[in-house]
């Protein structure tokens, strides 16, 4: 069952701030602003927020120049993205590389962006030093935005705009930039959900998150039905979809991940060569690999144990697929899982839907009930 360990690796990529970055490769088809781009990868656009930099906002002095500079660097070019998490707006957060050049560092060095110290969690100490030294060099040489006497940092600009629109803005908007305020994690949805379950005797992040727009959004829902697949499900809109290779040559695993309220919804589907394992072995092995990945992700982040007793399994069949459902209320973060599998022509199809929920939510059973498979379309008769 080692092949299904790819699921554990996948969820480490998506949920852990300490795991090595996953990568995607594609052509830059849009430069949205000075620190956000859109890359065309595997026949779909993927929005990328450049990690650890903050460029001037639109409407801010040097905002248009920063966007143009980023466009001059990478528009219509093939880039490698090392992504390490998901931003509040659903963008992937990652390092963008062009011919081994870190474009984020280049933007800072050219005076087109600030080093964003609040978004540095995935950088090594050596990387942080490079980013910091690049900004210091740009300041000293008065490059780009540093030609102004007192350039306004983007986060200060946004704070001022918010306060102007709403004089009764939150206390955070009134605090100086160097105030000692604990900021929630920028990277992991799992961290946000776990914060709701933090012991009351320790520091809690949930109330800070809920005060920030976008941290616990309530989204519209849509039906997801991937082309050429036999499943569909109702999912929150605005999620992230990505594709990664598996250990089976020529096969991939696709994932859709979205948050609604304080629940995290994930759908994963893959096709791979069967080694003769039974459907039950495939389903159980996949769940164990998934829980292992989530456990390692949680423990690396929180330095505390993630426990999950695999219980309450219900097995049945549907439209030629073997199905297993798990209700996992005793996990550190409660979860529900439904998985479908079958083997056709020596190739195993595997569909897994999961939801982690920090509090009771009517959308949790709604999601699970909507995740269904259909019979394959009958083949046309030859004439």
Explain what this protein looks like in three dimensions.
With 383 residues, the protein is α+β, with helices and mostly antiparallel strands. The chain folds into two domains: 19-174, OB fold (Dihydrolipoamide Acetyltransferase, E2P), CATH 2.40.50; 221-373, Protein Transport Mog1p, Chain A (3-Layer(aba) Sandwich). 27% of the residues lie in helices and 31% in strands. The chain has helices at residues 6-15, 63-74, 103-109, 125-140, 154-165, 171-174, 189-195, 206-210, 279-302, 363-370; strands spanning 22-33, 36-41, 44-50, 53-54, 78-86, 92-98, 101-102, 114-115, 221-224, 231-236, 240-245, 252-260, 263-273, 313-318, 321-328, 335-344, 347-357, 372-373. α1 (6-15) packs parallel to α9 and α3 runs parallel beside α4.
